[in-house]
């Protein structure tokens, strides 16, 4: 093995003059320091059972944990900011308590200013309780998510003969207003639509914002072309039921446009009280009919998308799978035994006369193995390891301290003898 150590001094004895067992004693030693001052600095460090100083071990573990700590800090900051900025404000679209552009607080406040009592019901039970208390109240019903089943809709139909429906779906119309049929979405959501009928509240409004859903009914107002080529009305009525195909005219953001406010106030303020009912998931618990199939709630394009994704996955498996083959076994060019490597490294220490550094590494290796044998943490302090070794072997603590925490040897002869003492101590630990 070629040597790359520092040049020998003139007084360096030949290898034959050195103790024969020195290379074996230096087996556990690490790479040689660049100079004697670096060796003294390395030997002066407090080496613990894991071969490194307590400070170095702490810094190493801190570096490993730093990404996780940063991630935890970011998550904690987001949670704290969310808690600090969280408000209990109503953000439900068309809610009479929502002050955002999608809410309907403005029209609800104007109705209350005109003497109409507005009750916001969040469940069917609340709506029916308010109906029993108020008597002949108008119901405003908005359920775009379809939370109510047929039985609940039937109960609503019996309880409220006068009602305003906001863009109802076909299943809702079949129960609440079977004479009114859906005609599809409006072709153009921009601009305004004129009344075009003789109904009093529609004529007073003149025109409203276009868009939303269109319907076909005995009484039709604000007709416009539908997206499928037909026509329909944004305002449909039959008996005591009124359908608003574009409930967006009630929102704070558009209530002041065209005749939206006039139509909203005249339609919702026809009675002395108004029950504003928007079903929520709480109504699902009160449903007694069979539960809806979740797959039926998915749009039609989901099945097509799933089939397409499945085909893509199969193609990807075929594409990547055909590239896989058997593992290629390649023999190593040369095998070097661990003993030969350790002996060569020991010769390098011997050539550079790094006695103190070699002693420090031998001691660190002994401390590490002793700590593991005695089931102590790898970062245990020397004093703890010394105390445990003394109790295990029965030696005096002073003798163990001189070996594991005392001054290191200064000559190669003392190093060989001191290394043998460390080996003897390890044997006692293993055998006791």
Automatic annotation (TrEMBL):
It comes from the Bacteria. The keyword Mitochondrion does not apply. Keywords: Membrane, Transmembrane, Transmembrane helix. Residues 1-22, 392-412 are annotated as: Disordered. Residues 98-268 form the DUF4350 domain. InterPro entries: DUF4350. The chain crosses the membrane at residues 65-84. The keyword Chloroplast does not apply. This is DUF4350 domain-containing protein. It comes from Arthrobacter crusticola.
